[in-house]
Design brief:
196 residues, mainly beta, 7-stranded antiparallel sheet, globular
């Protein structure tokens, strides 16, 4: 009886679950711009970061992410940021670049609130040459490299003081579908909004 319940629960929940589509970073504390473009200029200086993450070292197709980030204040509350990144996991890869703007307002002495918006161009790629097929007549998944480029945006807010910060960010706000595979019918290609 318990086994039947667990099987029913897993079948039901499996249709509701979705994996994260965005690159995974560590050390977010040192570079909040990775998830929240409204944090640009919050340290009141220009910052340049190079980030590299090699997860599960030694496993074939393990996730690898590299990123170059520049952010900082311009004048009168205006702040900018830009990111260039590469994220690769197995046969799937993303190459992206974005440009962000954040407006920062001082609410009280050393307490700030920012709103940010980032425009992003992303190229996704599926390299079918790296895949092994049990069914040699597979028609849906491509056997060659396929690329698609799309435009998206991130909207965010950031609240900070001398000893605290908090923020909210919505990447892939435009959503949409990136069609890969034979006639664009490869499943799992919807871009879902994330909430950080």
């Amino acid at each position: 009886r318990k086994l039947t319940f667990l099987i029913m629960l897993m079948v039901t929940m499996g249709s509701l679950l979705r994996a994260q589509q965005l690159p995974l970073y560590s050390q977010y504390f040192f570079n909040p711009i990775l998830y929240n473009p409204a944090s640009a200029g919050s340290n009141e200086r220009f910052e340049i970061s190079l980030i590299y993450r090699n997860q599960w070292t030694g496993l074939e197709g393990a996730p690898k992410t590299a990123m170059f980030v520049v952010s900082g204040p311009l004048n009168m509350g205006s702040n900018i940021s830009t990111q260039i990144y590469s994220d690769k996991a197995g046969a799937f890869s993303r190459l992206g670049a974005d440009l962000g703007y954040a407006y920062r307002l001082e609410l009280a002495k050393n307490i700030f609130w920012s709103l940010g918006l980032t425009a992003q161009f992303v190229n996704v790629s599926l390299n079918g040459e790296l895949l092994t097929f049990q069914d040699q007549n597979e028609q849906v998944i491509p056997r060659v490299r396929e690329n698609r480029t799309y435009f998206d945006a991130t909207a965010s807010t950031f609240f900070n003081g001398e000893y605290f910060y908090a923020g909210f960010s919505v990447p892939q706000i435009l959503g949409g579908q990136v069609k890969l595979g034979s006639e664009g019918n490869l499943g799992g290609t919807w871009l879902h909004r994330h909430f950080f």
